[in-house]
Amino acid sequence: MTATNKETAQQFEIQRIYIKDLSLEAPNTPQTFVEEWKPEVQLNLETKSNKIQENLHEVVLTVTANVNTGKKVAFIIEVQQAGIFHMSGFPNDQLHHMLGSFCPNILFPYVREVISDVVIRAGFPQLILTPVNFDALYTQHLEEKGKQKSDGVVH
After folding, report:
1. Torsions phi, psi of 140, nearest 5?
2. Structural domains of the chain, ranges and CATH numbers in brackets
């Protein structure tokens, strides 16, 4: 098989993008609204994937933002942005990269928009998430996994 045939055999298609879960907590309102707004943002990202059926995978990008002002919680927002992706013809290492980096890259702009919109609707100033390098995070994850294996740690 030539490289050209191999490339044409690989197929990628977005089937659906959707919000799987969404929550916002603003425990200290309305007091938060009258205090000086100096937010401290802690952001957590997590990706998971599961095989739905042959060549069909769900990827879920979970973004949690904890926003404090002073020593109080202003709000906590968590969004699980998901997508269903059809992928065929990819070797395992490429498939894992697609699931762990490429698909989260597709989902991130959607989750950014959801977070910005919900935060504004909750009465807070807009929260715009900075771009994320999912390739670097994926590589870091692989390196940590490799280090754990070499250290004899089983997870």
Report:
1. -60, -40
2. 10-144 (3.10.420.10)
